[in-house]
Structure formats: structure tokens, C-alpha cells
Amino acid sequence: MLAYTIRRLLMLIPVLIGMSLLVFSIVHLIPGDPAKTILGEKAPPEVLDNMREELGLNDPLIVQYKNYMVGLLTGDLGRSIKTKAPISQEIKPYLAATIELTFFAMVFAIIIGVNAGIIAAWKHNSWFDYIAMLVALIGVSMPVFWLGLMEQWIFAQKLNWLPSIGRANILNPIKPITNFYIIDSILAGNFTGLKEVIKHLILPSIALGTIPMAIIARMTRSSMLEVMKSDYVRTAKAKGVKEFFLIYKHALKNALIPVLTVVGLQIGMLLGGAVLTETIFAWPGIGKYLYDAISMRDYPVIQSGILVIATMFVIINLIVDLLYSAIDPRIRYR
Amino acid sequence: MDLDKAGENVEEDYVLEVDQLKTIFRTEDGDIPAVSGVSFSLKAGETLGIVGESGSGKSVTSLSIMGLIPKPQGRLSGSIRYKGKEIINLSEGEMREIRGNEISMIFQEPMTSLNPVFTIGNQMVEAVLLHMELSKKEAEQRAIEMLRQVGIPRAEEIMKEYPHQLSGGMRQRVMIAMAMSCNPSILIADEPTTALDVTIQAQILDLMRNLKKDFNTSILLITHDLGVVAEMCDRVIVMYAGKIVEESDVRTLFKNPNHPYTKGLIKSTPRLTSEKQRLYSIPGNVPSFKEMPKGCKFVPRCEYAKDICYKNEPELVYVGEDHKSSCWLNIEQAPSIEEDAS
Ligand SMILES: Nc1ncnc2c1ncn2[C@@H]1O[C@H](COP(=O)(O)OP(=O)(O)OP(=O)(O)O)[C@@H](O)[C@H]1O
Ligand SMILES: [Mg+2]
């Protein structure tokens, strides 16, 4: 297991290098003058030239690439054109906000999705099965923004149960330490603040988690149905194993293998920044950060943002692969 | 009074009595009567063989006894009595007490019958703990002991291994160890050696013979290999298209087979003694359930078929002491088969 983990970690190096090269190329090789794009066609030449100098565009491409890579290796992602602040610092709270939201959205999606899938398969062709799969179908086809708006309208506006925007109560701000508000409020011993943070997480988590939940439920169901027909489940039954353990022990562990793939992909997608959800819930996440950067044509931020998102995608993939081998012993020995 | 008592004793001798068992699968293409009216009984310590070609309903019969026919497509009727108690269509909860404890089963597919994501130890211990009041430690000891009994070397290490690390023969041994771990009264072995190579096959059969000797287990041995039957069984049932066509003790069956199908089966078994010649095979195939003939199911492949055979189904009748067969040739006082064939 350890050897496998190390091997997989080493395999990350070429992937990350390739990725950085790709991001670099996209930004630098697309036709057009970034300085002009940023400042507009009518900007005076000396202003444009200043901008080019600032972006390092006057250097030969190879030197630009070297500077960029050296920067990456030292954790320097460059500076934002708009705020002039170092991106590696600026991006942290946005990143933390997105990760925190993704985490809760996925916890919601996995707990409900997996269990609904299991029960639907267990009670195959029952009313539960039909309703669960109908809900799942609606879930995958529902536009996220619409779901978010409906949630806000019902639970914030009409019932006034939950806050509809932001990460915390403005009257009880969380002092950022790690930028994960749950952790920060606990570290500060601010438990009313913690309660507020959790309340703020509920609506966006549900909005963001609904599609993954529906996909996970459907995947779990079909995978369980397949596994429950298997010879080894029949063997377990022939031993006298109780139905509950047939399902939750013998079948589930096997059925989870394909579900894991789906979960990994969904986490990757959510981490990629759910611009719509983040906009509706005024959630200061990476999606919003990138969206602002794009509308401001803040090239260094766009470039670094994409790189950070892609890196997270790769890391999630790695974790999924390691989980595979933890669940399925056949993978470890290959 | 005496008579009554004698009758009771006969009853008690049987650990399993199957009576007019019918198992029908509802499918989109109509009903499949995989087993249609099978009756037999099994004595304590006896080995009963069930032979027949692929699709004759051997596995369905054994799965029916175990209560493992998938519901709701599969429907059972008739009677299955275990030690006098009716167990057909028993509730899941009651059936669980019997499965693995009183009646165990070894499946036809050793490669896929163990759960790939749990260790052998985990699966063995689970089987022991289900039916025996033991601590985890004791259950582990019992599991290791069972693995040793079925001739698995390094039993302690094997406990920590996963099924994919073992060969087919080893997996089947594990299956046998698991099936035997709670000392069942009946072991149903559904082609336990078909998927294995010949040397392993002999070892597994040896193993089952020893287990039977040591624990007086009754064995229902399903196979399509008459060699295995000759070696292992006391009595034999021959199945064809979901029905029993012949039943007798093993010597009679080989010396004096009655049903043309049985004769064909015996003729098509390779023998070392006979000089080299083309191996006989019964012409034709088992008919599908859709095109099942109206009369005797074997009639399209039978070289002795008469008019009556096409019209009506023959019943299973005694043709000798403890020897039953279902063929019109017996019933109609037909000319003897030898004459007919010459
Ligand atoms: N779940 C099921 N649904 C529908 N038909 C089934 C099902 N299980 C078995 N059958 C049918 O029942 C018939 C008997 O099958 P069975 O498995 O008992 O044969 P068998 O004698 O064990 O053959 P083999 O030697 O190949 O193992 C076959 O025609 C099979 O297609
Ligand atoms: Mg079979």
C-alpha cells in the first residue's frame, strides 16, 4: 500500500509539469496582445508598453516560461493586475471558501445519495425505488441556479429559517486563521459564530450537492443491483447471513467501487468553482474569484486560478485511486 | 402398533424428503418450468448423486432446497422436508437458521463464489460466528482448524489473504471448509469439481468422502460426470429437462440402466478398458422449454421412440427393487430394447 502510494505520488510530477505547460501555452500562445485586451484598443502606446513590461511579455517566451516555472516552484503565482497583491495570498480565502462548501455539499450528496441508492436497490421495484429514482431524475435535470433561488425564496424569504447569502453573519465576523470558517470559529472558541457558519452552509450545500446526490444515487442503485446478483452474495446468503449484512457488508463494499469514480469526478467539478451557485449565494469562492478576474481581464489571476483548480482535480483523482486500492485488494497487487 | 413404529422409523431415517418439487421461473418470454415434479429422499450419511446434462435443472433443484431461488421470478411448489419439517417457502428468518447450519451448499463456480473484497479469514469467521456460540478468538481457531482439515497448507496465513490470491482448487477447498464449519447434516455440492483440473478434482472428492465418514454428513452431489458418481455415490438420480427419468442404487444404474437417456449417458462416458473408438454422444440437444415435446421429453433424441412416446408422458415407475424409471418401454410391455436395437 505504501509503495503504491509513493508510486502514485511520483506519477504526479509529470502530470503537474504538463499541466503547467498547458496553462502557460494557452495564455501565451493565443493570438492577440494581452496588454491591448486588458487596456482596450485605444490605450496610448506607452501605457500599453508599460503593461507589457509589467506582464513580462517583452521577454523571450523561453525566459517567460522559466520565470513562470521558478515562480510556481517557490509558491509565487504572480501578482494580480487589478489589486497588485500576490495571487498566492489573495487566492487563499476564496479557495478555502470553495473547499468548505464543496466538502459539505459532497457530504450531503454522498450520505443521501448512497443510502437512497442502496435502499432503492434493496427494495427494487417498490414505491421507494420509483420515488427515489424519480427524485434523482428531477435532481440531475434541475438547473442549479433555479434550485438555489427556490431555496432562498422558501427557506430564507418565506420561512426565514436560514440565511440566504454569505459565509457568516456580518454582525459576528469570523477572524480568518485557516480561512476555513468552521475551523476558525472553533479555534477562536466562537460557538455562536460556528452555529451561524453552519447555517450559512446549508442552503448552498444543498443547491450544489443536489446534482451529485442524484448521480450518486443512480450509480449506487445500478451498481448494487448488479452486485446483489453475484455469486458471492449468494454464497453469503447460503451461509445464513442476515439481509442487512448482505446489503451493507457483502454487497456495498463491492458496489462502492464504481460509485467512487463518480464521487471523484463530482468533487472535481464542484471544486472547479460553481460560479452560478457562488453568485446566487454571494459565496466568495474560487468561482467568483475567477469570474471577476475574467471580467477584469486579469490574466495572471486567470492563469493561476486555472492552475490551482487543475491541481486540485489531480489531487482528488489521486485520493480516489488510493481509496480504490483500500477498498479493492485486487488493485494493490497489480 | 408395531407397523406404525416401523413406519415412523423409516420416516426418521430421512434427513431430506423432496416431494413433487416444482420450480417455475416467470420471464418475459413466458414461464420456464426448470424443475417440474421432482421427488427424492436422502438418508443420514448417504451420498445421493444427481446427474444430467446442462440445463436439466440440477442447480435449480439444489437452490430450491436452500431457498435461494431469486424471488419473485422464481416460484416453488410441492414439499421439501428437512428432518420431517416442511421448509419450502419458509420465511427468510427461519430459513437463515437452516442455511449454513443444517444444510450447506458448495457452488458450481469456485472462482466467483467468494467475496473478493474480504479476506478468507473474515468470510470463514463470519460463517462460524453465525451459527456457533463462540468468541471471535475461538471462531478464528475453528476456521483455521477447518482450513487444515480440507488440506490447506499455511492455514494461518491463508486467513489473511484475499480470494484472488488463491488458485481455483484452493478456493473450492475454502468453500468446502466454510460449508462444513458448522457441522451441517446435509452438504449440497453442486458440481464441486467441474471447474477444477483432474488431480485437484480427485483431492476434493477424497476430501468430501472423508468428511462424510467423519461426520456422517449426507451429501447431495450434483454432477454431469458419471465417473464421479461411480466413485462417490450410494444412489443416483438421473434428471432430464426438469424431471427425474431414472433413480436407483449406483451399481444397478451402471450394470443395468433402464432409461434410454441413462444408457446414452453411460455409453458416452469415456472408459479406459474399451479399445480406442469414437466417443459416443447422444444425438441432438436438450430441448428448450419453449419447444418441449408433449409426450416424453426425451423423445426427439430417443432411438426406441414409439407412437405413445410422442403423445403421453410416461410416469416414474418401479422397474426393480429400489429402481425407478420413466419410460414407455417398461410400461407397455414393449419388446426388449436389445431386440429392438439389433
Ligand atoms: N433465474 C432464472 N431465471 C430463468 N431461468 C432460469 C433461472 N435459473 C435457471 N433457469 C433455467 O432453468 C434451467 C435449469 O437450469 P440449471 O442451472 O438448474 O441447470 P443445470 O442442470 O444445473 O445445468 P449445468 O450442468 O449447466 O449446471 C435452465 O434452462 C435455465 O436457463
Ligand atoms: Mg448447474
From TrEMBL, chain A:
Membrane topology: Multi-pass membrane protein
Protein name according to UniProt: Peptide ABC transporter permease
Keyword Nucleotide-binding among UniProt keywords: no
Keyword field: Cell membrane, Membrane, Transmembrane, Transmembrane helix, Transport
Protein family (similarity comment): Belongs to the binding-protein-dependent transport system permease family.
Cellular localization per UniProt: Cell membrane
Chief place where the protein resides: membrane
Domain ABC transmembrane type-1: 95-324
GO annotations of cellular component type: plasma membrane
Residue ranges of the TM segments: 9-30, 94-118, 130-149, 201-220, 255-281, 301-324
Taxonomic lineage of the native organism: Bacteria, Bacillati, Bacillota, Bacilli, Bacillales
Metal-binding keyword on record: no
GO BP annotations listed: transmembrane transport
Pfam families: BPD_transp_1 (PF00528), BPD_transp_1_N (PF19300)
Organism: Vulcanibacillus modesticaldus
Domain of life: Bacteria
TrEMBL record, chain B:
InterPro entries per the UniProt record, alphabetical: AAA+_ATPase, ABC_Ni/Peptide_Import, ABC_transporter-like_ATP-bd, ABC_transporter-like_CS, Oligopep_ABC_C, P-loop_NTPase
Main location: membrane
Location(s), subcellular: Cell membrane
Organism for this UniProt entry: Vulcanibacillus modesticaldus
Highest rank taxon of the organism: Bacteria
GO molecular function: ATP binding; ATP hydrolysis activity
Membrane topology: Peripheral membrane protein
Database matches in PANTHER family: DIPEPTIDE TRANSPORT ATP-BINDING PROTEIN DPPD (PTHR43297:SF2), OLIGOPEPTIDE TRANSPORT ATP-BINDING PROTEIN APPD (PTHR43297)
GO cellular component assignments: plasma membrane
Gene3D superfamilies (UniProt xref): P-loop containing nucleotide triphosphate hydrolases
Family to which the UniProt record says this protein belongs: Belongs to the ABC transporter superfamily.
UniProt keyword Disulfide bond, yes or no: no
Entry keyword set: ATP-binding, Cell membrane, Membrane, Nucleotide-binding, Transport
Name under which the protein is recorded: Peptide ABC transporter ATP-binding protein
Domain ABC transporter, first and last residues per copy: 19-266
Native organism taxonomy: Bacteria, Bacillati, Bacillota, Bacilli, Bacillales
Protein's UniProt keywords contain Flavoprotein: no
GO terms of biological process kind: peptide transport
